Amino acid sequence: MGTDGTLAERERLPDPAPGMRLERWTYWSQGLKVKGYWCAPESDVPLPGLVYCRGGIRGVGMVRVARIATLAKRGYAVFAPFYRGNEGGEGREDFAGEDRHDLYNGIRLLRAMPETKPGAVPLIGFSRGAMMALLAAKECEGVGPVTVWGGVSDLLLTYEERVDLRRMLKRVVGHPRKDPDQYWARSPACWADRIESPVLIVHGSVDEHVGVEHAYRLARALEAANKPYRLDIYHSRAHVFPREEDDSVLDSIFAWIGQTSGN
């Protein structure tokens, strides 16, 4: 058994674009071998690191190579954990429970790699990945500015809004009346005072999967805790933005990351 946050295997995959390198990493997390994609431009010098926290659960919302390549082309070495139990990884995903350690150990791994420039690592969390990213900002060292895009900030609100997810939530997290502490632990709006990174909140005003109220609750909680944040609401936009607008939103996110982290 390897040490948490250390590499067990790195596998070269076909380049996603000219000048871009893609690998699948297998690494150790709580005694499990878990996996993720690493992507970076070919470079003779270390690049700033960035971690992308996927949304969904299991086969829904899996990491897409095209997505992390889009992030990496901006000059970053990007790592995107699959979370345990996915794509051949050991263990079983539990929706921002113990699987949060797969993110923490992925951050440690990325920061320790020679391809990564020293310093704190920014995180981008999409949808459920927002819970993961903000848990890391609360509990993990070496976390830089955090962007949450269409992010869950109150899992009880998700239970109320998403009738289609209730069966999964009761099975994986517990019943909200019987296990309220499990919902609280996964709800960044409940512990915003413990978030130790600047936060950029990006949300579509007509998000059909994670209602925009999640963004407002997180913003209010950060404001009350006197934590640095920015709230960007995109009107008439849903959970997934139109492709033609996606790049401009990412430009805005990376400009904020650069201003906030000094990269």
UniProtKB/TrEMBL annotation:
The keyword Ribosomal protein does not apply. The keyword Hydrolase applies. One of its GO terms (molecular function) is hydrolase activity. Keywords: Hydrolase. It is an enzyme of class 3 (hydrolase). It comes from the Bacteria. Residues 66-262 form the Peptidase S9 prolyl oligopeptidase catalytic domain. InterPro entries: AB_hydrolase_fold, Peptidase_S9_cat. Its EC number is 3.4.-.-. This is Alpha/beta hydrolase family protein.
